[in-house]
Amino acid sequence: MHACQEQFVPRVVVDVMLKPEILDPQGQAVAAALPRLGVTGVTSVRIGRRVELEFADPPDPEQLTELADQLLANPVIEDYSITVPEPVPEDGP
Amino acid sequence: MHACQEQFVPRVVVDVMLKPEILDPQGQAVAAALPRLGVTGVTSVRIGRRVELEFADPPDPEQLTELADQLLANPVIEDYSITVPEPVPEDGP
Questions:
Q1: Between chains, do B30 and A59 touch, taking CB under 8 Å as contact?
Q2: Hey, which of A49, A64, B74, B88 would disulfide with A16, CB 3.0 to 4.6 Å?
């Protein structure tokens, strides 16, 4: 049995990165460790957070922005981007 | 002065997330805080790391996998995905 309309779980990804002008010691530590692994040619490493949220219903974009601003990121030192991955359409025969 | 061929900085994003079967207390803490912000309907929150690497030269995919396996992720409890964002072509008139 195959339902005509699959239940779509709305999934939102919020990527939080330090602003470019803020020092990232964690990234610098990784960059310093790279030559020991034989990896050269890396000019920059920045480490941030990736937050994956799953919603029961499609979320309100305004609410998402508020959520990222108040809970997930510190807007003083961090930038964030909100991505809503497109559901993969299942239009097979 | 505008060079014909812009210098392309190869940029690689490695997303590291805890495996689905591993408990994520940080995500649970965020999920528990959401109702206080008035956000309801969130069924799951998972928090991982986003690593942005910039290379002087296009990196070797095999080397990238080794790098993610040995330095950026702990393969016992974490999954990672390596994304090489496409450069935006500048084919304007």
A1: no
A2: A49
Task: Give chain B positions within 8 Å (CB) of A43.
Answer: 9, 54-56
Kindly report, residue by residue over B1-17, the tens digit of the pLDDT. Answer: 444 444 566 899 999 99
pLDDT one-digit tens code per residue, A19-43: 999 999 999 999 999 998 888 889 9
Q: What is the pLDDT of residue A2?
A: 47
Strand order in the sheet with A42-55: A78-83, A11-18, A42-55, B42-55, B11-18, B78-83
Question: How distant is the Cα of A42 from the closest Cα of chain B, in angstroms?
Answer: 4
pTM recorded for the entire structure: 0.81
Q: Where are the domains of chain A?
A: 11-83
Q: How far apart are CA A72 and CA A64, in angstroms?
A: 10
B37 neighbourhood in chain A, CB within 8 Å: 66-67, 70-71
Model ipTM value: 0.81
* Among chain A residues, CA nearest to B60: A39
Assign a CATH topology to domain A11-83.
Answer: Mth169; Chain: A , (3.30.1280)
